[in-house]
Amino acid sequence: MAFWGTELLAGEPVTYVFKKSQGRLRICKATLGVGLAEGRSVVQCKIGDKSPILLCSLRPYNNETCSVDIEFKEEEKVIFEAIGPTTTSVHLAGFYLTNNADGQSDSNEVKKAEDDEARVNGRVKTFPSGLIIEDLEKSQHSSTMIASPGSMVSVSYVGKLKFTGYIFESRNSSSPFYFRLGTDAVIAGLEIGITGMRVGDKRKITIPPSMAYGPQGRKNVPPESWVEYTIKLLSISNSVPPLFSDEQGSNVEVD
């Protein structure tokens, strides 16, 4: 997965054409650029021979950024254009979704293969690899968004060694951990365990060494250790959080 971005100047359309080596394009955010702001800027896109579609409207000092979630198919040629003052610009940001030979993302393929082989017993799902996902709490949140590859998520968590209960890391809801699913930002067991969660869901994820820290281990985690994470999903979005932090949290239980 690679970052994509472009700057739209009023009256100067930008054309996007799919390239197999890059993957499909997914746009996450539109933001007003630096310049003398005079009025509203509207971003539109024209897909193939279809009529233009308005993506968002931006206004200085009021609504200068807008989160969007648009993924373009491989065969589509797209023309982006900013309509508004010539003294400012609009920046579009997103990323490429890498495809495998079947046209599906690698992360989705791994998740599908795991799900096909998993045993389900009530709220507990057990995989042949030894990975165990247990639903502790189901969200009462009205949102229908589900964490999936490409989603920016924030979580609170407690990470323990399975056989001793030693807490080697944790984050609470006042200092959550932000990351994007499908980018190898976390260990494989967490990628699979968090995928499919909704905001407010809480899970316990038991992870074998092969999907955790392996023979090398990490700080406070010996080599070939089984680990357990109690995870609560706090948010899902498709844009970078306002403040990204990877500082170690305090050793407290998930809220």
Automatic annotation (TrEMBL):
Its EC number is 5.2.1.8. InterPro entries: NPL (IPR041232), PPIase_dom_sf (IPR046357), PPIase_FKBP_dom (IPR001179). Keywords: Isomerase, Rotamase. GO terms for molecular function: peptidyl-prolyl cis-trans isomerase activity. Residues 150-237 form the PPIase FKBP-type domain. It catalyses: [protein]-peptidylproline (omega=180) = [protein]-peptidylproline (omega=0). It is an enzyme of class 5 (isomerase). This is peptidylprolyl isomerase. It comes from Papaver somniferum (Opium poppy).
